[in-house]
Amino acid sequence: MSALVTGIVFCLCGFTVTLPKGVTVNGCDVGGLTRSAAAALIRGEKEKELKTKKLVVSGEKCQYVFSFPEISYKDNVQDTLRRAKRKGSYTANFSYYLCGLNEVVAAVCESERVLKEEPYAEFKTTGAPFIYHEGHDGKEVDAVRLKNDILSSLKGGFEQINVRYLNTFRQNSLHTVKQNTVLLGRYTTYFDQTNINRASNIRLAAELLNGVIIQGGETLSFNKTVGARLPERGFLKAKIIENGEYTEGVGGGVCQVSTTLYNAALLSGMAVTEFHPHSLAVGYVEPSRDAMVSGSACDLKFRNPSKYPVYLRSHTAEGSVSFEFYGKSDGAKYSLESVILGYLPAPEEQCADPSDVREGRDGVRSEGYLLIERSGYVKRVKLRRDKYLPQKRLVYTLSDGEETAQDGAPG
Length: 411
Description:
Blueprint: H1 2-17, E1 23-25, E2 28-29, H2 35-50, E3 55-58, E4 63-66, E5 71-75, H3 77-83, E6 88-90, E7 94-98, H4 101-112, E8 120-123, E9 130-133, E10 138-141, H5 143-155, E11 161-162, E12 165-168, H6 174-179, E13 182-190, H7 196-209, E14 213-214, E15 219-221, H8 222-226, E16 237-242, E17 245-250, H9 254-267, E18 271-274, E19 301-303, E20 310-317, E21 320-327, E22 333-344, E23 348-350, E24 363-374, E25 377-388, E26 393-397, E27 403-404
Parallel strand pairs: 1-6, 3-11, 23-26
Antiparallel strand pairs: 1-2, 3-4, 5-7, 8-9, 10-12, 13-21, 14-20, 15-19, 16-17, 18-19, 20-21, 22-24, 24-25, 26-27
Helix pairs in contact: 2-3, 7-9
């Protein structure tokens, strides 16, 4: 009985896996073969054919070529063989696909992308303040079209695919960029270039401010930008004002830089948020137009009130220091006015040494105003009221009673 069952199973198995004689599938004679052997033969022939095919995607930057096994296939060979129960010619359907189609499309898009570049201004610290660049439009691959074209090519005759693009246009114009980088204001003061140490300090401090860009809403701190005035940073000893007197100190002359910057900032529409007057009037600006800086306690700060960047340039020539502000104009014209309210007479003292003789200087009470002109209308804004101390007059009385005085205060 056991042998009989075994024979029956063997016969049934042989019957279910062997194809009838005279069966062809896609032109392949598979009669007498098992279905698995027939499927391998049919697929092998298809793969030979597929290896001769290439899918070419042609872009502007590169050509992308795909072939077997990147290109694979799906079929219904097994279903066809199961239907082949008698002699005849059968057709199995094959469909081609590109492995990782979505990833391929994404990679081609990335490779072929041309990013748009908006027009822009390149800020320079010397020469012309800006170099202007036109920029260019960009291109993006039409990803949906590319995917559909690949699918269509694989269904058809593997026709070459030409990548199609979507333009991405610049949003701004060079004219707009130039409007955002006009000269807002400038101011210049003058110094004695023969005073070597003081002139050196002025040049150094001004250079540390050259090329600074103040973003919209940002505040500039003079002390933070220039840094500590120390010998190891290149600052030298020169006259400074301390406690109402002129004395030697490291960094003398830096206050002329901060004062020049203060005036240029106001004339450019900046919002000054911190300033400090000197205790004595200075000779390089009118009263109520100075801005003293000292250590970390006294700073000059101003804010860019617009939403556009402001570009700061400095220049030191022989005997002068200048600051220029560039950015988008708010349409106003700015000017400054100094008003003398009165004078404080300089007290007089006698001195025992002729070398101490000093003519002295009267003190000043003053106010500073900012004049803002828009559409022919001028608005006068009071900025500050100041009191500058007098400087004592020191006299030496000669034996015959004649008095002599010399000017001992620096300008």
